[in-house]
Amino acid sequence: MGKTFLGSPALRASLAEVTHADTDPAALSGHDEHPPRMGFFTDTSVCIGCKACEVACKEWNNVPETGFGLSGMSYDNTVGLGADAWRHVAFIEQRKPVAAQLAEVGRDRDVDLLAGAPAGSGTPPTEAALTPTTPGPGREGAPAEPGEFRWLMSSDVCKHCTHAACLDVCPTGALVRTEFGTVIVQEDVCNGCGYCIPACPYGVIDQREDDGRAFKCTLCYDRLSVGAEPACAKACPTDSIQFGVLDELRERAEQRVQRLHDAGVTDARLYGHRPDDGVGGDGAFFLLLDAPEVYGLPPDPVVTTRDLPAMWKHVGMAAVSLLAMVAGAVVGRRS
Question: Which residues contact 70 (CB under 8 A, 6 or more apart)?
Fold first, then answer.
C-alpha cells in the first residue's frame, strides 16, 4: 500500500463533493472551504509492537522522553498516553489461543502456561524438559497443544473526536479544530488550567509537569499542511497505522473486518468508527481482536459535555425561581 495520500480520489474531487457542512466537524468549526476530514485507522491485527510509531512521534514533534524504567507490564514501558507520550503501544498477554491457528483449540480453556516452569533448567534445549517453545500443559493432564497463548498489541493515540469535550471546556481557545477535522493544542495559548484533562472521555490529554500546559497528538498538523502523512504512519513497517481520508478508511476497515471474519477471526471488531456513537465517531479508530476494555479503552465513550446545555438551563431556571422567591418575600414584608 502506498505511503502517500495526495493521490486519493477524495482529494482529487471538488470541495463540493467531499464537504458535508451538516456533519463535518471542520465545517461546523467555521472552516467554510477545507479538505476532506483526515484520520487514522489502526489495524491491531498486524501490529508487531516495534514501537517505531512512538519513536517517530517523539523525534518529529520533539516530545520529551518518558524515562527508561521497566513498568512490569510486559514490554509496555510507556504505560499510557500523556503529555510526553502521544503514541502508546500496548502489550496485552492472554492465555487464549491465536484465532484460527488450530481449529480444535477452544477458547474456553483455562490453561496455565507457567505450571511447567519448574521443569526448565539451564541445560541445552535438546535436553531441557521445558524450553520457550514448549507448549503448556493441557486440561487435566491432557497432551499440550500449541497456540494456547496470544499477544495483543495496539498503538493508541488521541481519537480526534467529532464532538470533542476538550474543545468545549477550554477557556482560552488553546484547543482548536483544524481544517482537516483534527484537534490540536496551541502551546502558546494554553494557560495550564487543566479543564481539558477530566473532559476527555479517553483520558488522552495531559499536562506537562515542568510547565503545566496540556499536550497531545496533533496528527502532525505541520506535515498535513504540506501534503505529508503523520510521522507515526510513515514509520509503521506493517501499515498497522493507516492514514488517509476518514470516509475511505472506514470503508477499508469494514472490508478488512469481513476478511478476518471469513478467515475465522470472529473476535475482530471495529472501535470508534460509528458516527452515531457517544462522541460522534472518532477521527482515529481501531480494529480490535478483543473487547475494548482489554485494550484499556472505554466500551461506550460519551462526550462529557453532552449534558452542559441542559445543566445551564436548569441553573437558569433555578436562578429565576430564587429571584422570584426573594422578590415575593420582599413584597410580602412591605405589605
Answer: 77
Nine-digit cell string for 23? 456533519
Which range marks the domain in which residue 290 is found?
9-94+152-295
With b meaning 16 or more CB within 10 Å and e meaning fewer, what string describes 201-230?
Answer: bbebbbbbeeeebbbbbbbbbebbeeebbb
Exposed, middle or buried: residue 60 (CB in 10 Å: 0-12, 13-18, 19+)? middle
Taking the C-alpha atoms of residue 283 and residue 197, their distance in angstroms, rounded to an integer, is: 19
150-156 and 88-94 strand pairing: antiparallel
Which string of b and e fits 13-26 if b means at least 16 CB within 10 Å? eeeeebbeeeebbb
Query: Is 118 part of a structural domain of the chain?
Result: no
Q: Is residue 288 within 8 Å of residue 272, measured between CB atoms?
A: no
pTM over 0.85: no
Q: What is the pLDDT of residues 266-290, one digit of tens each?
A: 899 999 999 988 899 999 999 999 9
Contact 111, 139 (CB under 8 A): yes
**Residue 176: helix, strand or coil by DSSP?**
strand
Note whether 184 and 223 are within 8 A (CB). no
3 state DSSP class of 42 = strand
- Cα 61 from Cα 331, distance rounded (Å): 65
For residue 208 the three cell numbers come to 506537562
If DSSP codes are grouped into helix, strand and coil, which group holds residue 155? strand
Same domain, 291 and 313: no
What are the pLDDT digits (tens) for 80-92?
A: 899 999 999 999 8
Q: Identify the CATH number of the domain in which residue 250 sits.
A: 3.30.70.20
Starting at the edge strand found earlier in the chain, the sheet holding 269-271 runs 241-245, 38-43, 284-288, 269-271
Q: Provide the 10 A C-beta neighbour count for residue 297.
A: 19
